[in-house]
Design brief:
Bound molecules: alpha-D-ribofuranose
Oligomer: single chain
Largest sheet: 9 strands, mixed
Order of helices and strands: EEEHEHEEEEHEHEHEEEHHH
Number of strands: 13
Shape: globular
CATH architecture: 3-Layer(aba) Sandwich
CATH topology: UDP-N-acetylmuramoyl-L-alanine:D-glutamate ligase
Helix content: 25-40%
CATH class: Alpha Beta
Length: about 280
């Protein structure tokens, strides 16, 4: 069982001809709403890849909560540790997607995600854990200290984190921007460090030394939202399954690539059989 300590959002997505620069207005976009949040996305991604998963998180006591939890529920992610918090809104992510390149920009309004406390994880029997920085660090730290198995931390978005938290990790995953923000600190943690490089794939390091590198299969990119979450979840699932680092990384970049072929975060998360089939084709 993987316990995910993470965020739950409703994604409001505008897909248009280009992304605005500061001060610019871009018109002609198409509007969509999808369940999202890095924690929720990773929970559902791991579930679709075959793991038993429960999510610990918080939503508001509002109409958006049901919409944000819909695909998690349908997908079989355990939700009994998700709180509905009075007086808070469900987290919302405002997302712009460039229809040509699939690139995105995201503004998150955390709402109820910000109220998760160490007390909320206290007493939970946690074996394997995944955590993201869209929920408060003290809750993540308390959960990581309680975990008896594999601890995967996706340090996204880049925020200040104590060394005490990094020291609990078996796997730290970051994208290129986050890798630059954290610098060598992540490599000194003793954890495996995965850096995702977008269309270039990903690299896995141990103690600052590269131990694996994988390129993704070529796919038609529709929307990259959720690809990083899929990559992290797939790598975590594969490493928990004891796959060798090179195989685990290849599996993760294949899953991440598949997530780019459909619109939206959670609607695009791939099934295990589709990842395995695409990986086989590339061999
Ligand atoms: O990683 C993608 C996610 O980031 C989106 O689903 C959005 O909710 C933000 O949390």
């Amino acid at each position: 069982m993987i316990t995910v300590i993470g965020s739950i959002n409703l994604d409001i997505v505008a897909t248009g001809p280009s992304l605005p620069r500061p001060g610019e207005t871009v018109t002609g976009a198409r509007l969509a709403r999808h369940p999202g949040g890095k924690g929720a996305n990773q929970a559902l991604a791991a579930r679709r890849l075959g793991a038993e998963v429960r999510l610990v998180g918080a939503v508001g006591a509002d109409d958006m909560a049901e919409e944000a939890l819909k695909l998690l529920q349908a997908g079989g992610v355990g939700l009994s540790d998700v709180q509905h918090v009075n007086g808070e809104t469900t987290g919302v992510a405002l997302i712009g997607v460039n229809a040509k390149s699939g690139e995105n920009l995201i503004i998150v309004c955390p709402g109820a995600n910000a109220v998760l406390r160490p007390d909320d994880v206290d007493g939970l029997a946690i074996t394997h854990m995944m955590g993201v920085l869209e929920v408060p660090v003290p809750a993540l730290l308390a959960a990581a200290k309680q975990a008896s198995g594999f601890v995967s931390l996706n340090l996204a978005p880049a925020l200040p984190v104590p060394d005490e938290l990094l020291a609990e990790a078996d796997l730290i995953s970051v994208n290129e921007t986050e890798a630059e923000a954290y610098g060598d600190r992540v490599h000194r943690s003793g954890a495996l460090v995965a850096v995702s490089l977008g269309s270039e794939g990903a690299v896995l390091y141990k103690d600052g030394t590269e131990i694996a590198r994988a390129a993704p299969p070529k796919v038609l990119v529709v929307d990259t939202v959720g690809a990083g979450d899929t990559f992290t979840a797939a790598l975590t699932v594969a490493l928990i399954e004891d796959q060798a680092p090179q195989d685990a990384l290849a599996f993760a970049v294949t899953a991440g690539a598949l997530a780019c072929t459909r619109a939206g975060a959670q609607p695009s998360l791939p099934l295990r059989r589709d990842v395995d089939a695409l990986a086989l084709k590339g061999k």
